Amino acid sequence: MPIKKLNIWKQYIAWKLIWVNVLVMLVVIWLVGVSVKDFACVLVAKYQLVGDVKNDFFGRTMQFYLIRASVLAIVVAAIIHFIFIKKILSPLKRLTESTRQLMEGSYPEPIQVTAEDEIGELTKRFNAMTLTLQRTEQNRKVMLSNVSHDLRTPLSNLNGYLEALSSGVIEGDRELYLSLLEESQHITRLVEQLHQLSLWEDRGADSMVFSRIPIDEFITRSLQSFQLELERKGITLEVSLEPHVIVSNEDGLRQVLTNLIQNAITYNSGHIVWISGVVAGEDYRITVCNLGEALSEELQELVFERFFQADGSRQRREGMKGSGLGLAIVKEIVGKLGGQVELTSDKDKHSFSITVPLKLGKN
């Protein structure tokens, strides 16, 4: 037990700082005191101000006061030092306790920032990290819940029909097989989009290939793949593109444009989709507009979240089997490319905008 008490300075940074400072003060005080004493003794001996007996008495007296002053200075300095060190290190103790709570699986309350020094900055970063971890955990739970919910209905339908077909309860026809194919394709799209989202989340800038892209021509080519669907649904495109060459990733931009245009077509309640592209400062802004159901301000803030669907029951009734991942993928890719996403709504007219830097490394 005594040995453990002697080693307490190894376990606590406060004691380490106290012992180091005490040692420094002791050395300084002792050197100064010894120097003053020796200098006084030399003066007394050199100029014979007192006799030998008094000279010895003077030396002992100087040594006594030196030791007493040194001990008193060390005790007072240690007390003051301990008070200030304890105040400085108290945030670190709170950080240690909060870290322990995180390791045990619970999320601690934010730590109050009481200083603007390095420890205060560390506390701010720790609070931000805790909040990010909490949000990530919540998103993970929501994502798992939404995935299971989104897969349950088509899988139940498939299992039910296949079981009935295998037992002879019902006989297959073209309409039934098309319905089963549609359910299967919905599951395939969902899994594929989850895979794409996962890939882009893990992708870093060093793994992406950037090239010079004539953005107006690139958008025009991307629209061509939707011509048949647009004609089938009787939707007209109004396109206005400002010519410009940007430096970006082709695969990412192609995926972004595909998702935005597909979203505008799928959820369009009118007969026109507007697409524009303009240079805005150091960015190129692409906007896709369509007419749809009115969205409240609260819902507008959620459209780029994973699995968001404004009215899932209406979509199922009308055959619009969206996964709720298309715009989430757009947000993820645009963020990786250094841009931003935005939605502005005016009643039933919705404008989805993205900005892409004109040059590599702008952001």
Automatic annotation (TrEMBL):
Q: What is its EC number?
A: 2.7.13.3
Q: How does it sit in the membrane?
A: Multi-pass membrane protein
Q: Which Gene3D superfamilies match?
A: 1.10.287.130, 6.10.340.10, Histidine kinase-like ATPase, C-terminal domain
Q: Keywords in UniProt for this one? A: ATP-binding, Cell membrane, Kinase, Membrane, Nucleotide-binding, Phosphoprotein, Transferase, Transmembrane, Transmembrane helix, Two-component regulatory system
Looking up Pfam families in the UniProt record yields: HAMP, HATPase_c, HisKA
Mainly localized where? Answer: membrane
Histidine kinase domain: residues covered? 146-360
Where the record annotates domain HAMP, the positions are 86-138
> Reaction catalysed by this chain?
ATP + protein L-histidine = ADP + protein N-phospho-L-histidine
Compartmental location: Cell membrane
Q: Cite the PANTHER family for this sequence.
A: SENSOR HISTIDINE KINASE CPXA
Name it. Answer: histidine kinase
Q: Which organism is it from?
A: Paenibacillus agri
Lineage in the entry?
A: Bacteria, Bacillati, Bacillota, Bacilli, Bacillales
